[in-house]
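Re: Re: ligand-bound prediction request (bumping)

Still looking for help on this. To restate: I need the protein modeled with 2'-deoxycytidine-5'-monophosphate bound, output as structure tokens. Inputs repeated here so nobody has to scroll up.
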Amino acid sequence: MTPVGDEIVGHETPAHGAAMNSTPTVVAIDGPAGAGKSTIAKALAVALGIEYLDTGAMYRGVTFEVLKRGLEATDVEAVARVARTVRFEQTSDSLHVNGVDATAAIRTAEVDAAVSHVAANSDVRQEMRTRQRQWIADHGGGVVEGRDIGSVVFPDATLKVYLVATPLVRAERRVAQHGGDVEEIARAIAERDERDSTRDDSPLRQMPDAVVVDTSDRTVPEVIDEIRRLLHLRMTTRDDTRTSQSATDVSS
Ligand code: DC
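Reply:
Sorry for the wait, this slipped through. Here it is.
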């Protein structure tokens, strides 16, 4: 059994290539910290043969640069300037910030503590949203992980998944990945969730058209299978709607 916090899984030919449709396939994976988003989103992208974008890493990358320059994460103007000018080179498992490999540094407790202040900055969010939409245009679709992907960045996403897990499972996963004390981590996660869910600009929230998937007691392959089934259903329905729409167009 492969728990959701672990590394990943199988491979298959893309079932739903963006080239087949004029609208790129976007799978939005939102949810709170430790719900299994990264593991699931990465594995799903591999299984579908499409690209993966971790938008949390972008907010972390801005935070890394802010702290590196000795700025306060709460300094709205200065942080916005950093966000507008920062250069990222991002792959599915690495991030370079202004030419510096920040892959490990963006996961430190220091960045953890500051990132939700940076993510609450509207100018930062606007800049990141623009970059995320551009990324999808450049890559012809993808699996995009974050907090506001289905609600704000891609409200017309092909499929919106809202991942959840119990607070204990979420804290235990973080400890398994980065070490630390479960209770302390649980408290830090709860504080970050609170800030992410109550900020004015694009707070974390579950959209009515998102499918809620609980990863607490399920393996990665089980979750991936469920999401793939949902996506298949969504794509079939979308194609059916299009077919009947063009039939209507022709007959009218
Ligand atoms: O998923 P993560 O823990 O790496 O996210 C880091 C922070 O960025 C977290 O506080 C939530 C925030 N975030 C956000 O506000 N919007 C996103 N699309 C992605 C992450």
